[in-house]
Amino acid sequence: MSSEISKKQPRPDFIRVEDFSFHYGEKQAIFDIDMAIPENEITALIGPSGCGKSTLLRNMNRMNDLIDGVRHEGDIRLDGVSLYDPSVEVISLRKRVGMVFQKYNPFAKSIYENVVFSLRVAGRNGKKELDETVERSLRDAALWDEVKDRLHDSAFGLSGGQQQRLCIARAIANRPEILLMDEPCAALDPLATLKIEELITTLKNRYTIVIVTHNMEQATRCSDRTAFLYMGKLIEYGKTVQVFENPKEEQTESYITGRFS
Amino acid sequence: MPPEPANNPDPRRFEVSKATLWFDRFMGWAIRFGGIGVIIAVFGIFWFIGKEVIPLFKPGAVVKAASVTSGTTPVILGVDEWGEMPFFYSGGNKVVFVDGETGARSEREVPGLEGQEITASSYDPLQRRIALGLEDGRVGSFIVGYERLFENGEPKGVKPFITAEPWFELKNAGGPVTAISYGDAGPTRIMAVKTAEGKVEVIRLGLKGGLVGGKKLSVTAEVDITPQISGEVALIRASQNGQMVLVADKVGKVSYFLADTQGVTKRQEFTPFGGQGLAQMDFLFGGVSAILTAEDGTQEQWSLFRKTEDAERLFGMTKDFPDVGDGRVTFAKSQRNRTFLTGAGRGLSIRHSTSGVVRWEGTVDIDPAAAILDAKGESFWIASETGEARKFEIKDHHPDAGVQAFFGKVWYEGGAGPVYQWQSTGGSDDFEAKLSLVPLIFGSLKGTAYALLFAIPVALLAAVFSAAFLPADVKRIVKPTMEIMSSLPSVVLGFLAGLWLAPILADRVPSVMMLVILIPFSALLVGYVWCRMPLAFRNRFEGGNEWMIVIPFLALAAWIGWSVGPLVEKMFFVYVEPGTGKRIADFSLWWPQATGTSFQQRNSLVLGFIMGFAVIPVIFTIAEDALSNVPKNLTAAASALGANRWQVVWTVMLPVASSGIFSALMIGFGRAVGETMIMVMATGNTPITEWNLFSGMRTLSANLAVELPEAPDGSTHYRTLFLGAIVLFAMTFVLNTIAEILRQRLREKNKLV
User: Fold this and answer.
1) For residue B512, is it within any domain?
2) Are the beta carbons of A30 and A56 closer than 8 angstroms?
């Protein structure tokens, strides 16, 4: 129900990145990025390798905290609250902000247990709730029909594309508000990629999605907005149509026309 | 036209340089050679150990070696140390010697007879003494000795000689002596005699020193024991310790007399075969056990032991041997161990009393009337009434070995029942070796169990903490430190354990108990309080720096625990002295009183602590690596799904790292089982079989280290130690194999494909 309410009035600056800089030890990966990501839209982060797009994404649920020797300046606000506020509990933050990784990474458990992992760690073990969650999440991830007869088989028995969809099902099982996707199709073949893209589009209404991608077509096909990052700086950010058809910056144009990558 | 270099590239560009090929080939061979070398070395070790051990399990073998004729009907048969020249004594005034090789016959006169008829004789091969009883009631003896002859420095033949010994006039007896037995323990000697009138006497001999001249052997007591014996006497035997006499009557009742400072007293009467007469009764080597054979061939061993701790040492049946069969019973005991030759008629067997097994069984081609084992136990002679004699060589180097002796319960001499016992050497020649490996196996298991009991929880929890909680900069210090710890020489650790830690711990057991309770408890308490602190405060220590908070509390808990130990001791561990009722607060006194088990300073607690230093780093390092190598994308996925750090460990890291952790445990186990120096120095090395935390143990490895240097090459003891090595290897091999199977299953279950 809550998603319907929020659908009525999507907040335009649901995620606010404010003068954000980020360092891995001595190396600065992000320079003063400032952007607002609206609710219930798909925002694509594009740019050449090492431009900082993944780093930016991984800061949105503080996954970079797990890395040793990192440091940041500026702030990221989620619905107005700083992620770095002392009162923020990282674990509950990560429950709000789900994540799908570049390489599909199901646990060495059954399909069923993979999906309900986030509920289990939250101590929710009611059979009915778990069953419902599994079906809903797998349906949302367009995987239900393929796996409904073997929910208790190992997740490793699935194909790569199925495993990635399982990871998406796992990420949305606890109904996060935001879904971060770090090149979700990088390890998949074109057919599986297509399926994931379709899935992402259908998820749009319910989740705010930030997706990192190397694939220009994917950005144009799926996203509402596109941000182009280069050398840790935000070069251009706007509606996808505008960025691709009428880029304001020369660097953006060079990149999307394939003059450098 | 010269070809253009661009269009005609160097044709040698596909060639591989000679040096590369040569090196590749050389390395290929070197690796092959190394690999095969390792395999050969391993099998070589097996071969060597197997070569040492296999003889232990060979049964005895007997080969006929010589055949001679003496022309006399022997009552007594004796032989020299090398089994070369037996003597035959028929009870007359001549001793006949026959060379075993040539058959040459010679005679010697029995000294000091003064024309009297010999009416009784017996032989003690240990002292090489023939004891005689005469028609006129005199008793005496002479020695049949042999001198080794040499030719060109090589031993060649023996020369017999006879040494006269004093004669003694019996005061009470008078008349012909019909049976005699002589037991000699040097300064104290005993003789048991029976006369034609049916009198039985015990004569004690002693060395009486005159002021002038040397000490002279003379009768110190002559005791008539006839009234204490009900039936008609059949057999009398005096023991080699010069203190005991066994008298058997015609209906198989045996009376045991002890000659000690209180004189000669009857101590016991027993009927081994329920009214059946005895065909044979003799003390075994050592004089603590006797072998008794009934007329129907049943054979038993009776030994002296205390039934309860305060009881008197009396005879009781300890072993039941297979029947010897029908016919005239032959018996000859070994002069160096518990082996004896026995049999009935032509069927003979060599038996060993410790394990109660038959070492060899066979038949001979003459009817033995007398038999003798040579002093080295390498051959035996038998002689028939017709004057035929045979020599048999015995190939039985390890009569006291065998599966039963190593792994079964054995009723040793002097013990109240069958036990597992290890005591390989003793102070005297007649010591009965106790070679059960069970206490050592138990010791190894106990040592390992206590070591791992201390080490595994600490090591695994430390590994989890370091891999999943500790900030990387602290980990960079902790991990190498732990690795350096594993390189501490175990002799240093053992030295510390035995000389420094053991005395401290012995005094502070209650303190240690308090530490064991308080440290984990305080950690839990701090954790509980921590969870209730405001989030903003807790977030200041995020990223694994919570340890800064915990450490002072742990230190405080340790200090408190150590300090209140003596207080706890005063409250709960008060020893009440049984005699005076005095109350002493001392755990080391209280523990034996309260539990009935012992308290030793070098105990399993000390061992557990010190072995921790040896085992924890090993387990920690490998387990930590296994946990750290869990793919980051998995832990990240779990974190991204809202799992807290402990949940990440429990649900993702532990299952994935389980096979690696299992390896860590197995390597830790291997270290603990094989550890030698710490075990030698810190455990007291008592081969006991009890799980008591406050007693020590003797492990197979420590046993090897302690005893191998003093075991004579090729002896039973030496080979048994090698057997211990094989057992140790087998234990680790079996456990490692099981563990490897389990590990493979774990890996299969949690593999990441």
Assistant:
1) yes
2) yes
- Residue holding tokens 């073990």? A125
B718 domain residue, yes or no: no
Distance between CA atoms of B350 and B684, rounded to whole angstroms?
39
Sign of CA dihedral B631, B633, B635, B636: positive
Given an 8 Å threshold on Cβ–Cβ distance, is A61 in contact with B543? no
Lookup result for tokens 């929910």 = A151
Q: Is A103 near chain B, with CB under 8 Å? A: yes
Compute the C-alpha angle A164/A166/A170, nearest 5°: 115
Residues B586 and B531 in one domain: yes
B368 and B450, same domain (yes or no): no
Residue from A90, A125, A158 whose CB has the most chain B CBs within 10 Å, to mutate:
A90
H-run or E-run covering B150: strand B138-151
Question: Could you report the predicted ipTM of this complex, rounded to two decimals?
Answer: 0.87
Nearest CA in chain B to A104: B633
- Residue B535 to residue A117, Cβ atoms within 8 A: no
CATH no. for residue B557? 1.10.3720
Domain match, B600 and B668 both: yes
Residues of chain A by 3-state class (helix, strand, coil), percent to 5 = 40, 25, 35
pLDDT in tens, B514-531: 999 999 999 999 989 988
- Condensed to tens digits (0 to 9), the pLDDT of residues B182-212 reads 998 888 899 999 988 888 999 998 887 766 6
* CA distance, residue B475 to nearest chain A CA (Å): 11
Cα B108 to Cα B102: distance, rounded to the nearest angstrom: 18
- Looking up residue B207, the CATH number of its domain turns out to be 2.130.10.10
Q: What mean pLDDT is reported for chain B? A: 89
Q: What percent of chain B has pLDDT over 90?
A: 50
Any domain includes B139 = yes
- B99 with B179, same domain: the answer is yes
Domain that holds residue B358: 61-407
Q: Which domains are assigned to chain A?
A: 2-256 (3.40.50.300)
Judging contacts by C-beta atoms under 8 Å, the chain A residues touching residue B542 are 65, 90
Structural domain contains residue B423 = no
